TrEMBL record:
InterPro entries: Mito_RNA-Proc/Resp, PPR_rpt, TPR-like_helical_dom_sf. It comes from the Eukaryota. The gene is A07p007000.1_BraROA. This is Pentacotripeptide-repeat region of PRORP domain-containing protein. Belongs to the PPR family. P subfamily. Keywords: Repeat. PROSITE patterns: PPR. Gene3D superfamilies: Tetratricopeptide repeat domain. PPR repeats lie at residues 158-192, 228-262, 263-297, 330-364, 365-399, 400-434, 435-469, 470-504, 505-539, 540-574, 575-609.
Length: 633
């Protein structure tokens, strides 16, 4: 007699559980005893797994056994088991977690989700729904229909399963599919919960699809689905995004008329709406009203005001007010202060806030580091930016996509293509997929280095990867070809832009006009400005300065001043570039008297002349000196 080997013991265990020669009671008894037999005893055949055996194993938490037989479970057996576990969804979830959901057929997957949806927490069912939606080619409509069938099999009246599908679509940013599910629920006579509607409205608001939000809200009203405090808060936020602040306050009054009391989120949403539009006094009026209703302003109230006032250089006013109310800045507040100082080029104060933030126990976030790195690049402090990156790496923090893009763009702006492409390669090695912004920066630096063949190749690679170029990328490439005089390629790219149904902008045309002027084709450039206007694109001061500079280089003072007059008539103020271009033209024609008058006009407009200005004036006035010498002689 020898003791069983492990494989033999497992086979014997299965035969006991299957009921071969033993009752379930005997099976339980023998499983707790030491089993021995002769090695010459014939091997017992393994019978098929029954639903009763599987259920017994699940209910007694014999998960090792369940995992052993997973490959032998049929969809029919799994479905029968899930139906039996309907009243114990926690066990159903444990069972589902031990089988590969993707290997099940579609109806069984949906049944599993339906049973798991009975749990008090919606998260497990949501996770399973995400797996099905993202890992299959089955449409959300088909998933909806199958879930309805699963719901019928469970003989339940609850709509929570379908509500969860809508919520899942919203989380995956499939808002159109979520709306489709909503209307399908109504068609089948199910009443979606207000919370489900709020989920759709919130998604539409986050995606700035405000028009769709109003259409959906109107349908809610028509279907007599009651709005709650969350519904009103979402729609007030939509109105604030649209800049309709008066209507947003009107909705606050309306909800109170319907007996729905606003909460602090309602008021904070209004404060943010006013702050984003720079209407700080309006924001303060809202704060005054919320105080009168018994609400105490918090950091969420003041951070939006702080953000605007920081950009105006008046952060200290808000910080003082916050201190008087006993509000201590949090990490969000500090990041706002750091961003405001960085954007103004005040990096010393920005880093001081970073240090203060750390002393208060707030760890710098990626946003903090990214803001500082961006600020350093903007101020041309490359070495300091590299030192900060080294600090991040020493802390064991892996760079994210935003950090890489800031670095790549920073090096590209400073013409360092080698470092930019090295970071691109490192980004790929780290498993971070370059974005459209990444490639636009790289194309820009190649164009700046006049490596147009490489720029075109990179552009084609981007398109070949299935990434749709945006207008910024096209503009970078068009500008590169215009700068190198390849106007045929530049205009071919403009045709591509139209073919892709991307609307060109003033930047597109300004690049083309500059390219034409560079080739001396001033009339064609002037015609291009006319084309801009016909397409509804308003020329800006750059457009006019480009033409003025073109005519000035040619020495055509008359046309240059005609464009200047047109520019003035449209309300554009001349810039330093405008005056310098006009003076350059006058210097070529040695028209000293007009140049002197233009210099006086320039100063009266508050524009400080530079070296180029004075050089042109001196050249223009040289003929006056020559005339004076002749008259003296």
């Amino acid at each position: 007699m020898s003791q069983f080997t492990l494989p033999c013991l497992l086979r014997h265990r299965i035969s006991i559980l299957s009921g071969a020669a033993y009752s379930r009671t005997a099976a339980r008894l023998s499983s707790s005893s030491t089993l021995t037999t002769s090695t010459t005893e014939p091997e017992l055949s393994q019978p098929p797994i029954s639903s009763d055996i599987l259920l017994d194993s699940i209910r007694s938490s014999q998960w090792h056994f369940v995992e052993q037989i997973t490959g032998k479970l049929t969809p029919s057996l799994i479905s029968t088991t899930l139906l039996s576990l309907f009243k114990t969804p926690d066990l159903a979830l444990n069972f589902v977690n031990r089988i590969d959901l993707s290997c099940l057929d579609f109806p069984t997957q949906c049944l599993a989700i339906a049973v798991v949806s009975k749990l008090s927490s919606p998260n497990p069912a949501l996770q399973l729904l995400k797996e099905v939606i993202t890992s299959t080619s089955i449409s959300v409509r088909d998933i909806f229909n199958e879930l309805v069938l699963a719901r019928d099999r469970l003989e339940t009246k609850s709509t929570i399963l379908l509500d969860l599908l809508v919520r899942c679509c919203c989380q995956l940013k499939l808002v159109d599919e979520a709306i489709e599910c909503f209307y399908s629920m109504k068609e089948k006579g199910f009443d979606p919960k207000t919370e489900t509607c709020n989920c759709i409205l919130s998604s539409l608001s986050r995606l700035s699809l405000t028009e769709k939000a109003w259409v959906f809200y109107a349908d809610m009203y028509r279907m007599e689905i009651k709005s709650n405090i969350y519904t009103y808060n979402i729609m007030i936020n939509v109105l604030c995004k649209e800049g309709k602040l008066k209507k947003a306050k009107g909705m606050l009054a309306m909800m109170e008329c319907f007996g729905v009391k606003p909460n602090i989120v309602t008021y904070n949403t209004l404060v943010q709406g006013y702050s984003l539009r720079g209407r700080i006094e309006g924001a303060r009026m809202v704060i005054k009203e919320m105080k009168s209703k018994g609400f105490k302003p918090d950091l969420q109230t003041y951070n939006p005001i702080l953000s605007w006032m920081c950009s105006e250089g008046r952060a200290s006013e808000v910080l003082k007010e916050m201190k008087e109310l006993g509000l201590v800045p949090d990490s969000v507040s500090y990041n706002i202060l750091i961003r405001g100082c960085s954007n103004k080029g005040d990096l010393e104060t920005a880093f001081a806030y970073r240090d203060e933030m750390m002393k208060k126990g707030f760890a710098p976030t990626f946003y903090t580091y990214n803001t500082l790195i961006h600020g350093l690049f903007m101020e041309n402090k490359i070495e300091a930016a590299e030192m900060l990156i080294q600090e991040i790496r020493e802390k064991g923090i892996a760079l994210d996509a935003v950090t890489y893009n800031i670095l790549i763009n920073g090096y590209c702006q400073h013409g360092d293509a080698k470092k930019a492409f090295a970071l691109h390669d490192e980004m790929m090695t780290d498993g971070i997929e370059p974005t459209q912004f990444t490639y636009t920066s790289l194309i820009y630096v190649l164009c700046r280095r006049r490596k147009m063949r490489e720029a075109d190749e990179l552009f084609e690679n981007v398109v070949g990867k299935g990434m749709k170029p945006d207008l910024v990328m096209y503009n970078a490439l068009i500008d590169g070809h215009c700068s190198t005089g390849n106007m045929d390629r530049a205009f071919l790219l403009l045709k591509e832009v139209d073919k892709m149904r991307i609307d060109p902008d003033d930047v597109t045309y300004n690049c083309l006009m500059r390219g034409l002027c560079g080739e001396g084709k001033f009339e064609e450039a002037r015609e291009l400005m006319g084309e801009m206007k016909r397409r509804g694109i308003k020329p800006d001061h750059i457009s006019y300065n480009t033409l003025i500079s073109g005519y000035s280089k040619k020495g055509d003072t008359k046309q240059a001043f005609m464009v200047r007059d047109e520019m003035l008539s449209l309300g554009f103020n001349p810039t330093l570039l405008t005056y310098n271009a006009l003076l350059k033209s006058l210097s070529k024609n040695q028209d000293g008297r007009v140049a002197e008058e233009l210099l006086m006009e320039m100063k009266s407009e508050g524009i400080t002349p530079n070296d180029s200005t004075y050089c042109s004036v001196v050249e223009a006035m040289s003929n006056l000196e020559q005339d004076a010498e002749k008259s003296d002689n």
